[in-house]
Amino acid sequence: MTIDVLPDDVLVEIFFYVNNGDGQWDWDSVANPWHALVHVCRRWRCLVFASPRRLNLRLEYEGRRPISEVLDAWPVLPILLLSRAENLPSGFPHPKSDQRWNNVVAALESAHYDRISEIEIFSITNSRWERFAAAMQKPFPELTSLVVGSDDMVPVLVLPDSFLGGSAPDLRELLLRSISLPSPPNLLSSANGLVALSLSDIPDSGYISPDAMVTALTVMTRLEFLDLRFRSPRSRPDPASQPLPLPTPFVLPALTRLSFKGVHEYLEVLLARIDVPLLDHLAVIFFMDLNFDVPQLHRFIGRTEELKAFDRAKVSISDHSIQLLLDRKMRVLNYHGLLRLEIRCRVLERQLSSLAQVCSSSFPLISTLEELEIRHRKNDMEHARWQELLDPFTSLKNLYLPEKTAPQVCSALLELSGERATEVLPALQNLFLYDGYPLEGAIKTFVDARRRSGHPVSVHRRSWSGGWKNITEDLASGD
Q1: Is residue 377 domain-resident?
Q2: Distance between CA atoms of residues 249 and 155, nearest Å
Q3: Among 11, 33, 57, which residue terminates a domain?
Q4: Residue 205: CB partners within 8 Å, gap ≥ 6?
Q5: What single-letter DSSP state applies at residue 288?
Q6: What pLDDT is stored for residue 171 in this prediction?
Q7: Residue 40 is part of which domain span?
Q8: pLDDT, tens digit (0-9, with 9 covering 90-100), for 173-231
């Protein structure tokens, strides 16, 4: 049997997976995988061109030749306009030469602009922004995706009010990086077909108030992904502008992923105004503050069904931030997790104190967690900070610690006296140690104290095979 005996509909399904793959770029292959298919035989060519929507056929244009020469060689298909970043593998043609850039912008200015369905312009410079923005000040009837990012070092680029003719009802994906939107952002208020919206590295001059953002979101009933990230902590809402009492939250019925970076006051206002019943991924990065009062974040998580069933967590402490990842046992705990909370701060004591404020007893998830892993390699941690951080974890059974950090945590817990000695981590059953540092006496003393109090803890150490070995008896015997 050969592939020729397959019926047309089966071949089209095979072609779909060949052309779309897994969504990742393969720099060693042709830019349009379907190009190879149409050169196999007449039948395949006819099948491909007869199914442009099912196969998601597009002409990917990067400006190597004038647009007219490219279009003359192919049937009428939607155009994906690309100007990629500079950091490509060696040997790949430079994507930002003047000639190629001129060809890309000429395509926007040409009579074929109404066939452009997607635009991806990365690392646009200030000198090229004016012509690009001028070319985009008209409606693009087929445009469904717009991705534009500026260089970090260029002056702030401002999206004009007349961008896309001031309206984008057919746009499904809008990703802007380091671009300042006018306020109010009228373009967003007209984008009622958006499925994905990402405004990242929003400059201070492009500040969008929570009220303006909420107004824009009210029309986005199809939105599935929202990413809102401010460049600096100066993006702080004016408390006097917030109405009391707060209005009834409106529903974003399709949103499943929400990412935010900014000050906690901004997120509090935003979360008080929205309800997201299908949300299953939440990522929050806060700039450092001395007082994290986040009742709306706690209530938001508590009323979101998919964010209730966590049973394990990971705390990572680095030189510039502290991060909490929450996930479920049946999933592989990766960098993202289902819920991610991060606080940007370089002072170690404030890192622990800040996270402890966010994860206070009113945080609906912490008290049900059964597993916690801590990644931390520093020594200068006050005992009281560890106690403050661990206090809300009342259901924790398994604690994973670097062996360099374990003596600090155990010493901190040993300082507790009376009822407090067992109130912190009362359900703890197992202490897992990794990283191979010599065990210190504080761990043995902690295990002995727990045993005498009627709350025994077993100690496990990672073996050479990668598994865990119970060393509780070895500690008791002093080996």
Answers
A1: no
A2: 37
A3: 57
A4: 156, 158, 180
A5: P
A6: 92
A7: 1-57
A8: 999 999 988 877 788 888 899 999 999 999 888 888 888 899 899 999 999 999 999 99
